[in-house]
Amino acid sequence: MARLTIVSTRDYRQHVLEIEERGNGTHSVVVHPPARLGRPREVQPATGSPLLIDLLNQAKAEIDEVMGPKPPPRRPPMRRRFG
């Protein structure tokens, strides 16, 4: 019987997170940084068998460590009233 593998990508702070779920609780997260910041790398689980959300949070924490603190959110521009 054929296995179903789901692969999705998410953008996060100029990086691309490739999320692969193979069923049976097996999954992986690969971080693809911009070309100037290195090669893609797979996130290694910190514990024995973490959940997918734990791997995603760990990948985001690694990206935040490399990129530094997040900039403050921008205020939307003021709308002009015409008429």
Inertia-based shape: elongated
Low-confidence stretches: none
Rg to the nearest angstrom?
Answer: 18 Å
Order of helices and strands: EEEEH
Distance between the termini: 66 Å
Secondary-structure-derived class: alpha+beta
Compact description:
With 83 residues, the protein is of the alpha+beta class. It contains 1 helix and 4 strands; from the N terminus they run E-E-E-E-H.
Record the SSE blueprint.
Elements (H helix, E strand, L loop, with lengths): L5 E7 L2 E9 L2 E7 L8 E2 L9 H16 L16
Antiparallel strand pairs: 1-2, 2-3, 3-4
Write a structural description.
This protein has 83 residues and is α+β, with helices and mostly antiparallel strands. It is built from 1 helix and 4 strands. It has one helix spanning 52-67, and strands at 6-12, 15-23, 26-32, 41-42. A 4-stranded antiparallel beta sheet has the order 1-2-3-4, with helices on one face. The protein is elongated, with a radius of gyration of 18 Å. It starts with 5 loop residues before the first strand and ends in a 16-residue tail after the last helix. The model has no long low-confidence stretch (mean pLDDT 86).
What are the key terms here?
83 residues, alpha+beta, four-stranded antiparallel beta sheet, 4 strands, single chain
